[in-house]
């Protein structure tokens, strides 16, 4: 099967700084591909290049067989986009927002009306068709933005931080919707700062830093290849003294704020030792994608 999105040797500079630097990416159809990276890594610029909203300095973009940005108008009719910030029209109801958006795609009123019951059911907004946008909660607005992106029944959907700002319940509902789309064979390109979201949804992840892909693989592969299997997070008053001997019990230690992260293959030794330290509290857990991300991109703030 041909890839719905191919980026080859893509570069883009602003004011002499390369923010996308020789990027190659081919999405597999029917899979969810995650684009992760610290702030300023070039994720949004990559999405904008992929959608033909801006032109690359070098390299090529093939979106659904169309060269970008030359054929952007044609290609964009066939994709769905969930932007980072909701752009629903507050003067319209839920139904009117879907109708207006569908018309951008050249759809007829009847065609969109026929699709509205499905979109409302998909977004858990059945019964809300005539509700004004301002009566919706943040989670409902986000679900409507997702439903709106499906108005033209796209096979490829771009999602730019779809759950930022939502509470855990609302995030779970969005995840349920995204899993349903993946189950239907849709291809997703997802940017997120939530590693649990990426771990849960993505088949393949590309971690970007300074405009380059630094690693690529499934969440499980990345965890297996780049991090020790166990983490013990340690904090408490006695940390300063204990820190000096921590390296005898762990393969690798990292300090972040008031917490010491001990990475190890043999957590039993660390835990046994910590049981005898009343001034310390700890949490033992399996390593996750966030540990990989922080190891590869560092713990320093980027903005
Ligand atoms: P991310 O989405 O990973 O946070 P972006 O792609 O938004 O990163 O930005 C990458 C870098 O490019 C940042 O340093 C940002 O300031 C810069 N940048 C993005 N768009 C523009 C623009 N239109 N003009 C100048 N600089 C830009």
Largest sheet: 6 strands, mixed
Q: Number of DSSP strands?
A: 14
Q: Given the helix and strand composition, which structural class is it? A: alpha/beta
Per CATH, what is the topology of the largest domain?
Answer: Rossmann fold
How many structural domains in the coordinates?
Answer: 2
Order of strands, widest sheet = 6-7-8-3-9-10
The CATH superfamily of the largest domain appears as P-loop containing nucleotide triphosphate hydrolases
Note poorly predicted spans. none
Q: Any overview of this molecule?
A:
With 303 residues, the protein is an alpha/beta fold. Helices cover 35% and strands 27% of the residues. The chain folds into 2 domains: 5-223, Rossmann fold; 228-286, Alpha-Beta Plaits (2-Layer Sandwich). The protein has helices at 43-50, 72-76, 94-104, 109-122, 138-149, 168-183, 195-201, 219-226, 239-246, 267-275, 289-297; strands spanning 5-14, 17-26, 32-36, 58-63, 66-68, 79-82, 156-160, 187-191, 204-209, 212-217, 230-235, 252-256, 259-264, 281-286. The protein is globular and about 70 Å long. The protein binds adenosine-5'-diphosphate. Residues 14, 19, 37, 39-45 line the site of adenosine-5'-diphosphate (ADP).
